[in-house]
Q: What sequence folds into this?
């Protein structure tokens, strides 16, 4: 069974096997106590009707009281142990998933919705344990014990009970599981369609309202909802059917057991005990129909997680990483070719570039020219198809990815704000930094006014203060400046800022990074006369390179852009 | 029980019937268990012949049938309630308009309206029936027990209330703690998601591995705290379990002893043994379903909070049409009593909290065709309004006049726009500049009718904006990040003109410099966009949005919100050229950052902190970065 394979690594850790065993034992004991309670009570009453001496009943009386008391205690133990195991399993599943995600992989391209589904999927292990495995184990033990009791009293009746329990505990759950699988495949597209319509209405509210298209969009959502509801109504018949079959199985099994027992003439006491234990032995078995249904979803989630874990990282670390180069760093990029997927046009097609210590190089070019891809290659987030990147003569492919990023990192595309204080959001780039250094980074990123207003301890991120695009960009820049890597990479540091702020920020930045090895991606040319070299990328290759003076005096993308910028800015 | 939810279920006729059927089937099936116990006891004690087993089979069959009926009815109830609630939520969101306070995060609204409502399933199809059963079956069992054996009945009668009493006592004691812990659990999930989402950033700064440790520590700390809580919280179920099983023992042992003494017969004794657990079972079943149902209650609370929240909308769609009431009473003076809607809006709007009902009333009245002009206190029949619906009308660039307009958002202290007065002449092209957050977008939203002034007036061709019934038919809007729908390119372009022919769509695309790349797509204008379709670059998306505007040739007012904010030089110039053509012969208000866009304008208005700080013809524009040097109006 696939689920077990996913559980194995979870169980191996943290003495989980023992804890799980304890939970199973407590659950089974609780069910058995219930069985014992009804069995001994049935025996007590049926036997008492024969009016034996009181002593003959004393064991049963003790049994009734003991089972009655212990049932609740065992149940309590089961719930505690079960939840403990589930929480541990979930924690270790999440940690395992996280560790699998640490090396950069194609996952980086996944959307936010996929990520949150992935996190939801980690609950599957918890459900597998608490809602599938534990109930199944308890039902199994109960069934075995009930059938064994039956074997002692009347083997024929025991066989009837066994047949009934198998139907209720195996066939019906198998049916619900199959139905859930079939319906999941049919309902998922309808659900996704509805979600898309709803997202349209919410995210595109302005577009729809401005163009008077609200009514049409609402009607489309209603239609999608109606389609989903029609499917859901049909799906909703599966579980009641299972419940109905369960009721019939239980009732007919009990009736058959009585018929068999009375036919065999085993007497009122044995018949009563057989009938009532049969009746009660179904109690842990019938809920397995719901477990079967849930199991389908659980297994699908586990399969998705397994796929994620087994996706090879985009960049493999070498078996024996080379030592990290020290001293002033020279980065040489030679004929670099990067492709974002087989069959796609290369994002970088033979790019060469040299960064000597203290040299500042700017990368410009239209969007999609490969600027960010080059930064990704330097940060060892993508594996080049051909060409080399050397740092002081060491190929970065021979370094571990972490070490490569220790040398070259900075402001990346799509920086993220964590649900944490402003201070912690900044300090993740410099865990050792004191308040003074934090303040300096913030000042250099032109963020000090906002920080003053917001306060260092204000919580940012989803549950906290909203951060505008410009603030986020400057926060990310402050992180990069605080981190201060040997080779600073900056991807569009002035994006999402207004002209005046962007100009001031670039001027500051170029002041502050004087003498610092830096690769700067930008689409604004103002200030670039101060960098040592400008590389113009177009369609993945170097179209032009040189200083600002050289580039403005020769025809091409750079001069066109410079002229249009100068023209419109009135310079 | 959730009052709003039950009210909703009652108000929808179809749902009401199915819910009643579902509850009735559940109760009936519960009562049949009594009959089943009666038959079993009779057969086992030998009072009934074995042939009574046939009757037992029939009872079981009927119970199975009732389970089917209950399930089908429950399915119809849940889908019915969810559809109704979803429809109301979406309609309400549209009323609230596109400008929502930050407190309502779009993502959450999408989740709530979509998957979130599924949390109602266990409440409606599990909890409600179990409540009905718990209300009827224990009493029926007690009645039967009293008829059969007084002593046992008394024991059950005395112990039965222990379950709700203990449940409530322990529940009260642990509820707050438990709830806090469950919230912490969801926060833990949030923390994990947060870290996973931010992984690229962590990776860039070499903190990814360190966070793995943090994840473990947070989870461990959380687990210990949770288990401490659960040890207490689960006491409630321990007590319930004990109460039920000990009560059975309390009944069974004396019954056995009385059988021994001959003061009770076996059929009655067996009946008591079989019936007694059935008295407790429904209460425990209800308790078990309670927890899953609580998620549904939370979802319902959230949904009804959105539905009931009228105060949040500074300028709901609906409010815009009823905004007359916001003008200090002038509307009320002239309100014709023809529908009462105008009056309703007028009275209600004195406070911003004009309840949804009033506003809705006004909207419905408008939709029903009540003449808008009738509510205008200051006369001036709007000539533009009457004919605005007529197709094929020539472009008429409107004049826009703002008189001392102040806009406030309920969740913010400072005004978004403060005492702004402006006149934009017909055909004038105005660039709005200023720092982000200064109020430029609010001004656009004001003209779009997404927000309404807290004080002051917005006049279009001399008539107050609120009274232009189909005002938005006369404008074209290009937002900063236009939303492209997961449908064909052509349908995306004809968003504001669903009747447009493919030739008109092409013409619009050509004018927007979009025809070339659209034709190059795999299926041309029929290419589906979005997740499963083609992806367009930012510049291309912007040009599709411009094509939308071109596809509305009758629009006299053009509103653009930083259409080139994220474009590189070459994409920018295509968008700028297209915008220049589009603005021809129209009144245009353009929020702009970039010089190329600002240069399109005849006039540049700088806004800071919600006020106009500079207003000058484009030629006299001061260098970017200075402000306040041109006298404000």
A:
């Amino acid at each position: 069974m696939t689920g077990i394979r996913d559980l194995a690594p979870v169980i191996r850790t943290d003495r989980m096997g023992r804890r799980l065993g304890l939970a199973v034992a407590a659950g089974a004991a609780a069910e058995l106590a219930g069985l014992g309670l009804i069995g001994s009570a049935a025996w007590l009453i049926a036997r008492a009707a024969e009016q034996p001496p009181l002593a003959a009943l004393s064991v049963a009386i003790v049994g009734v009281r003991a089972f009655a008391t212990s049932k609740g205690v065992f149940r309590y133990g089961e719930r505690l142990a079960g939840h403990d195991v589930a929480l541990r399993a979930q924690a270790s599943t999440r940690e395992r998933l996280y560790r699998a995600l640490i090396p950069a992989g194609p996952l980086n391209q996944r959307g936010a919705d996929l990520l949150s589904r992935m996190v939801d999927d980690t609950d599957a292990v918890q459900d597998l344990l608490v809602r599938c495995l534990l109930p199944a184990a308890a039902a199994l033990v109960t069934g075995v014990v009930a059938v064994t009791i039956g074997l002692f009293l009347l083997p024929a009746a025991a066989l009837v009970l066994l047949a009934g329990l198998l139907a209720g505990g195996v066939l019906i759950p198998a049916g619900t599981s199959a139905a859930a699988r079939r319906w999941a495949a049919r309902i998922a597209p309808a659900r996704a369609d509805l979600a898309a319509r709803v997202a349209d209405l919410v995210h595109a509210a302005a577009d729809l309202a401005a163009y008077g298209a609200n009514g049409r969009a609402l009607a489309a959502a209603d239609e999608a909802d109606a389609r989903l509801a029609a499917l859901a109504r049909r799906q909703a018949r599966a579980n009641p059917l299972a419940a109905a079959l369960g009721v019939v199985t239980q009732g007919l099994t009990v009736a058959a057991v009585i018929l068999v027992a009375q036919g065999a003439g085993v007497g009122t006491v044995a018949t009563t005990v057989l009938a009532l234990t049969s009746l009660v032995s179904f109690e842990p078995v019938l809920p397995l129909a719901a477990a079967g249904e849930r199991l389908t979803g659980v297994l699908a989630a586990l399969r998705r997680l397994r796929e994620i874990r087994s996706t090879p990282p985009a960049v493999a670390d070498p078996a024996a990483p080379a030592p990290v180069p020290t001293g002033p760093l020279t980065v040489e990029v030679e004929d670099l070719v990067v492709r974002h997927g087989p069959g796609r046009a290369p994002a970088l097609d033979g790019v060469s570039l040299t960064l000597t210590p203290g040299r500042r190089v700017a990368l410009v070019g239209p969007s999609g020219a490969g600027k960010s891809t080059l930064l990704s290659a330097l940060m060892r987030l993508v594996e080049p198809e051909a060409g080399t990147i050397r740092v002081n003569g060491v190929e970065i492919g021979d370094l571990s990815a972490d070490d490569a990023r220790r040398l070259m990192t900075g402001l990346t595309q799509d920086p993220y704000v964590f649900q944490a204080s402003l201070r912690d959001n900044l300090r993740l780039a410099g865990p050792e930094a004191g308040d003074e250094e934090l303040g300096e980074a913030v000042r250099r990123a032109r963020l000090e006014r906002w920080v003053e207003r917001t306060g260092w301890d204000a919580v940012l991120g989803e549950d906290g203060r909203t951060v505008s695009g410009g603030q986020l960009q400057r926060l990310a820049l402050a992180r990069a400046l605080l981190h201060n890597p040997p080779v600073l990479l900056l991807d569009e540091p002035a994006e999402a800022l207004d002209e005046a702020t962007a100009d001031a920020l670039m001027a500051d930045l170029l002041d502050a990074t004087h003498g610092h090895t830096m690769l700067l991606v930008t689409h604004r040319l103002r200030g670039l006369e101060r960098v040592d070299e400008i590389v113009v990328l177009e369609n993945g290759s170097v179209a032009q390179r040189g200083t600002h003076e050289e580039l403005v005096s020769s025809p091409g993308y750079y001069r066109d852009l410079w002229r249009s910028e100068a023209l419109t800015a009135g310079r | 029980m959730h009052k709003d939810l039950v009210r909703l279920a009652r108000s929808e006729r179809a749902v009401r019937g199915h819910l009643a059927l579902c509850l009735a089937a559940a109760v009936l099936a519960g009562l049949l268990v009594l009959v089943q116990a009666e038959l079993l006891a009779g057969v086992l004690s030998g009072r009934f012949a074995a042939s009574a087993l046939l009757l037992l089979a029939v009872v079981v069959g009927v119970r199975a049938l009732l389970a089917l009926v209950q399930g089908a009815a429950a399915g119809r109830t849940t889908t019915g309630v969810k559809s109704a609630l979803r429809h109301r939520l979406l309609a309400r969101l549209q009323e609230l308009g596109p400008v929502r306070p930050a407190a309502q995060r779009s993502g959450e609204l999408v989740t709530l309206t979509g998957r979130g409502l599924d949390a109602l399933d266990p409440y409606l199809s599990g909890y409600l029936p179990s409540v009905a059963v718990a209300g009827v079956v224990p009493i029926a069992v007690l009645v039967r027990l009293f008829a059969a054996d007084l002593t046992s009945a008394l024991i059950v009668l005395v112990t039965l209330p222990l379950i709700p009493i203990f449940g409530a006592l322990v529940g009260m004691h642990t509820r707050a703690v438990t709830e806090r812990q469950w919230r912490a659990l969801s926060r833990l999930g949030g923390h994990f998601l947060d870290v996973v989402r931010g992984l690229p950033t962590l990776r860039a700064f070499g903190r990814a591995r360190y966070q793995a440790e943090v994840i473990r520590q947070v989870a461990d700390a959380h687990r210990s705290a949770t288990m401490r809580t659960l040890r207490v919280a689960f006491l409630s179920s321990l007590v319930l379990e004990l109460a039920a099983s000990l009560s059975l023992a309390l009944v069974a042992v004396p019954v056995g002893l009385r059988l021994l003494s001959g003061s009770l017969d076996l059929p009655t004794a067996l009946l008591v043994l079989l019936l007694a657990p059935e008295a407790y079972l429904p209460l425990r079943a209800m308790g078990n379903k309670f927890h899953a149902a609580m998620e549904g209650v939370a979802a319902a609370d959230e949904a009804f909070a959105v539905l009931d929240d009228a105060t949040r909308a500074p300028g709901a769609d609906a409010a815009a049409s009823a905004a007359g009431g916001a003008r200090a009473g002038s509307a009320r003076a002239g309100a014709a009593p023809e529908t009462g809607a105008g009056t309703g809006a007028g009275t209600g709007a004195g406070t911003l909290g004009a309840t949804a009902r009033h506003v809705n009333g006004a909207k419905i009245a408008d939709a029903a065709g009540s003449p808008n002009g009738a509510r205008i206190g200051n006369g001036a029949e709007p000539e533009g309004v009457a004919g605005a619906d007529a197709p094929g009308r020539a472009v008429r660039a409107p004049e826009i006049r703002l008189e001392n307009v102040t806009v406030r958002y309920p969740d913010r202290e400072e005004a978004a726009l403060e005492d702004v007065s402006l006149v934009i002449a017909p055909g004038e092209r105005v660039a709005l500049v200023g720092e982000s957050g200064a109020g430029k977008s609010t001004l656009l939203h004001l003209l779009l009718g997404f927000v309404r002034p807290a004080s002051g007036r917005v006049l279009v061709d001399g008539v107050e904006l609120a009274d232009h019934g189909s005002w938005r038919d006369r404008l074209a809007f290009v937002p900063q990040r236009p939303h492209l729908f997961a449908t064909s390119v052509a349908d995306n372009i004809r968003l504001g003109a669903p009747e447009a022919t493919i030739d008109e769509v092409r013409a619009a695309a050509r004018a927007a410099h979009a025809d070339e790349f659209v034709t190059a797509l795999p299926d041309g204008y029929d290419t589906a966009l979005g997740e499963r379709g083609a992806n367009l670059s930012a510049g291309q998306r912007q040009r599709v949005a411009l094509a939308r505007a071109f596809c509305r040739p009758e629009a006299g007012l053009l509103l653009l919100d930083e259409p080139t904010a994220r474009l590189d030089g070459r994409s920018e110039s295509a968008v700028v050229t297209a915008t220049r053509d589009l603005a021809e012969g129209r009144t245009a208000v353009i929020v702009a950052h970039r010089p190329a866009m600002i240069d399109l304008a005849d006039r540049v208005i700088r806004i800071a902190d919600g006020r106009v700080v500079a207003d000058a013809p484009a030629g006299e524009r001061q260098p970017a970065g200075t402000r306040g040097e041109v006298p404000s109006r």
